[in-house]
């Protein structure tokens, strides 16, 4: 049967294991042969034990584990054409010409480049005597499907990405813990959460965690925000609120494009209220721990749909990302989705926040 490689690449995210498991078992169920590519693209570049055929049992007992059992990495060699040529050779040695890639927009960009270059890479390998004419003819195209693994939920076009829901759970657990200590001391806590270009985590956490204020990259506060923040915190305190929480995305900015980070917020609160606010940076805690129920079942559905997609693909079909829209699986055009995602980051950089929100809006279900 057809041979499918599966890999996880870029930053890890809870739920990647459920997706890997679904790809492996879905492939076997549909009569294909699944291969794990270890440590992101590095396994493909290295070959040998970097690529291994998977059995049904190899992916048993992994669904509840965070991270990814097949490893992830940032592979510099795959950014070079030579590395991709070596990767093509190693995949072909095992007859693999279909890939399911679970990663962020960088990883999926690499996948698309690999897919487009594939015929040329094979021609070069043949010219160098590294593959036969038969091998070249037998695998004229690379068929790929992407699944977005990113706790930031930053891909435009899909409502959710793998790991986001679990990360939100981690944040809420932390906020609950913080607010009990904050309440005891009548203190303000400033909490930094992930979200370089995407405010999904801070915004959702602010709502679910009952925060007093939140700062997100796509919607910087209007000038004079320092005073308004302090007034709001003071009013809440006067009304009897004992615990105050201010959430800030790691990529939050003001209208001048300057970072609003925990230290700046600390200064603002100290100057405005004479209060020594406490700072917590959640960092990698957000990526850790057990995947939520959602990240298990949704990643399972995504994995199976990705297998179906690469098995149904033909030479002319465009590459897809399997995502979620309005709680249903959706096939998104890979190239367009990544372009739209990069556009949002560009708008934020240029200070065109209305455009950023509009471009983001569709995947936030507005
Ligand atoms: P995250 O958002 O979690 O950082 P990502 O997938 O965007 O995930 P990157 O570090 O951008 O993370 O990419 C992961 C790997 O994908 C790179 O180390 C490289 O191997 C490959 N890759 C990324 N961009 C490209 C590209 N333009 N060409 C070829 N390979 C790429």
TrEMBL record:
Major location category of this protein: cytoplasm
Record domain Phosphofructokinase: where: 3-308
Keywords, comma-separated and alphabetical: Allosteric enzyme, ATP-binding, Cytoplasm, Glycolysis, Kinase, Magnesium, Metal-binding, Nucleotide-binding, Transferase
An example Gene Ontology biological process: fructose 1,6-bisphosphate metabolic process
One GO CC term, this protein: 6-phosphofructokinase complex
Compartmental location: Cytoplasm
Molecular-function GO terms, alphabetical: 6-phosphofructokinase activity; AMP binding; ATP binding; fructose-6-phosphate binding; identical protein binding; metal ion binding; monosaccharide binding
Record family assignment: Belongs to the phosphofructokinase type A (PFKA) family.
Task of the protein: Catalyzes the phosphorylation of D-fructose 6-phosphate to fructose 1,6-bisphosphate by ATP, the first committing step of glycolysis.
Stated name of the protein: 6-phosphofructokinase
Species for this entry: Kineosphaera limosa NBRC 100340
């Amino acid at each position: 049967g057809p041979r499918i490689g599966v890999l996880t690449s870029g930053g890890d995210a809870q739920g990647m294991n459920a997706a890997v498991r679904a790809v492996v078992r879905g492939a076997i169920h549909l009569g294909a042969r699944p291969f794990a590519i270890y440590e992101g693209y590095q396994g493909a570049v290295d070959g040998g034990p970097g690529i291994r055929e998977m059995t049904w049992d190899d992916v048993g007992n992994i669904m509840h584990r965070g991270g990814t059992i097949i490893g992830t990495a940032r592979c510099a060699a795959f950014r070079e054409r030579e590395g991709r040529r070596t990767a093509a050779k190693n995949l072909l040695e095992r007859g693999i010409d279909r890939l399911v890639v679970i990663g962020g927009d960088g990883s999926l960009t690499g996948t698309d480049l690999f897919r487009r270059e594939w015929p040329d890479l094979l021609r070069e390998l043949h010219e160098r005597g590294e593959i036969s004419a038969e091998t070249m003819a037998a695998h004229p195209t690379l068929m790929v499907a992407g699944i977005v693994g990113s706790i930031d939920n930053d891909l435009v076009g899909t409502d959710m990405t793998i790991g986001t829901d679990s990360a939100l759970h981690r944040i809420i657990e932390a906020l609950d813990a913080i607010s009990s200590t904050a309440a005891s001391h009548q203190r303000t806590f400033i909490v930094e959460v992930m979200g370089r270009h995407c405010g999904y985590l801070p915004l959702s956490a602010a709502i679910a965690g009952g925060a007093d204020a939140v700062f997100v990259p796509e919607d910087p506060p209007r000038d004079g925000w320092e005073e308004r923040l302090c007034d709001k915190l003071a009013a809440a305190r006067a009304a009897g609120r004992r615990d105050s929480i201010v959430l800030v995305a790691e990529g939050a900015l003001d209208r001048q494009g300057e970072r609003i980070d925990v230290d700046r917020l600390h200064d603002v609160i100290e100057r405005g209220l004479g209060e020594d606010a406490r700072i917590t940076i959640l960092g990698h805690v957000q990526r850790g721990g057990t995947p939520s129920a959602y990240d298990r079942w949704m990643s399972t559905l995504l994995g199976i749909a990705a297998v179906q997609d690469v098995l149904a693909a033909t030479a002319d079909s465009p590459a897809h990302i399997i995502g979620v829209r309005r709680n249903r699986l959706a096939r998104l055009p890979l190239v367009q989705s990544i372009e739209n995602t990069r556009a949002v980051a560009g708008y934020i950089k240029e200070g065109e926040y209305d455009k950023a929100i509009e471009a983001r809006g569709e995947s936030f279900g507005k």
